[in-house]
Known about the structure:
alpha/beta; 5-stranded parallel β-sheet; 5 strands
Amino acid sequence: MAGRMPLLPARLGVSAARSSPRASSSSSSLTAPCALRQQHQHRRPYSSQPSPRNDKVKFWPFIAVIGLGTLGYMGLVNRRKDMPQKLDAPVGELPAPAKSTPTFSPSDVTVVFVLGGPGAGKGTQCSKLVQEHGFTHLSAGDLLRAEQERPGSQFGELIKSYIKDGLIVPMEVTIQLLENAMTETLQKTGSTKGRFLIDGFPRKMDQAVKFEESVCPAKMILFFDCPEEVMESRLLERGKTSGRSDDNAESIRKRFHTFIETSMPVVDYFEKEGKVVKLDATPTPDQVFVKTQQALKDKLGANF
């Protein structure tokens, strides 16, 4: 046995060590430090690395939530784009808040709506009434055209587009412009009483209702009835010198269509209330004016 001992397998060496008390005690005392050093040597390379765990944080739920929130926000933005925009603007240009009573009392302010198709001669008759009887003539179309040219107007481009296409401008804009003009006129005269010819308005039932609720009820409606071919001829002739963008054949036809579809129901409504006076607008302006004056006397009195 003094010679060189053959190498034993590791398991056999462990068994041999356990079978001999001396060998066990001596080998344990000698090998324990070695075993610890070997364990440390084996563990040292991994000592700075975390042990594998099964409870890793999963990020995909957070990504999904963020994605859904982004899609929801984009949807909300798109819906707001599609919603009609609220008419907000500085004081004096914008529709006033809803009022429980009209701004003007019909006992102080006389309002006469002057209706008729484009080219029926409304403006001509209003001018004569201003000269002969002291009315204030407010043309809804003129007010809108002036507003679209006013520097800094919030609704200038909108009005221009509507007029060019022969469409009706949103009533909130038109009604506020009319109320502003009436207020300015009364302030200049220093009186609470006035008489107004409102030309070319209302052109829709909702305009009529809104105006009477918020501004002033109308006393009567002058309706100048004129055939379409006569009106078209007049407008084309006027377009040669008027410079108006809507005095052209295409816009004229659109305006005719709009008037028949939306404005005639207004005439029919007020006619049932006994407020409408229909006048034939095909004769000469002077002949029409004679009949117009008589109609006003019949409705408003001799001193209208």
